[in-house]
Amino acid sequence: MDAPRYPFELVETFRLKGGRLVLIRPIHPQDETLVQSFVRELSPRSRRFRFHSALRELDPRMLHAATHVDHRRHLALIAEWFDGDRETEIGAARYFVRKDEQTAEFAVAIADAWQRQGLARHLLERLIAIASQRGLKRLEGDVLEDNHVMVSLAIALGFEVRENSSEPGLLVVGRDLVQAQPARPIARQRIAAPAHYI
């Protein structure tokens, strides 16, 4: 089976509130080490908010699933910061299309040192735009009720919030998608991406 086409058109740069420019791109199978480091370096609180558990790292099966995606039913974007030759993942956002082919479940995580700089909002806005352009009808996500920042962000972006009747302490945020705007094309990059992504 041929490897999924890498969606270069989704690569872009984004300037954080503090002025730093970061690269945002679809995930690649070669990102396993990058992704595992990102998860390990999250604080226990941030890992609980993302995975709803106390896991400290991804097991091999989870790591493979997180990095080997088809970019269609499973889309994953990562945000990177380059410090010289060092490449660091600082954020991630992804969605999975459900069997109904109309609804996708999303998740967003930001490295602790990079939170509150507009990155989570931008990544979620990108998921909304891409899902809409691809014809999906609805985006939903599970959020712990004490994750007040994520709940507030979801509400600000038009998501409705309801309790998860089967799991106490868990909320479901969801919004219908408008079929209109295409995903923004690739931006002129001012950050050099590794050669194997070009």
Detail the topology: elements first, then pairings:
Blueprint: E1 12-15, E2 21-26, H1 32-41, H2 44-51, H3 60-67, E3 74-83, E4 86-97, E5 103-110, H4 119-133, E6 138-144, H5 148-156, E7 160-163, E8 170-176
Provide a descriptive summary of the structure in words.
This protein is an alpha+beta fold. The protein has a single domain, classed as Aminopeptidase (3-Layer(aba) Sandwich), CATH 3.40.630. Helices cover 25% and strands 29% of the residues. It has five helices and eight strands; from the N terminus they run ββαααβββαβαββ. The protein has an eight-stranded mixed beta sheet with strand order 1-2-3-4-5-6-8-7, with helices on both faces. Helix 4 links the parallel strand 5 and strand 6 (138-144). The two termini are 22 Å apart.
For this structure, the quaternary state is: single chain
User: By CATH's scheme, which homologous superfamily applies?
Assistant: Gcn5-related N-acetyltransferase (GNAT)
- β-sheet strand percentage: 25-35%
| CATH fold category name | Aminopeptidase
What's the helix-strand series? EEHHHEEEHEHEE
Instruction: For the largest sheet, list the strands in their spatial order.
Output: 1-2-3-4-5-6-8-7
Q: How many separate structural domains?
A: 1
Q: Averaged pLDDT, please?
A: 91
- Given the C-alpha coordinates, what overall shape results? globular
Report the end-to-end length measured between terminal Cα atoms.
Answer: 22 Å
Assigned CATH class: Alpha Beta
Structural class: alpha+beta
Radius of gyration: 16 Å
Largest sheet data: 8 strands, mixed
Low-confidence stretches: 186-198
Give the tally of β-strands: 8
Please report the number of helical segments.
Answer: 5
Q: What is the name of the CATH architecture?
A: 3-Layer(aba) Sandwich
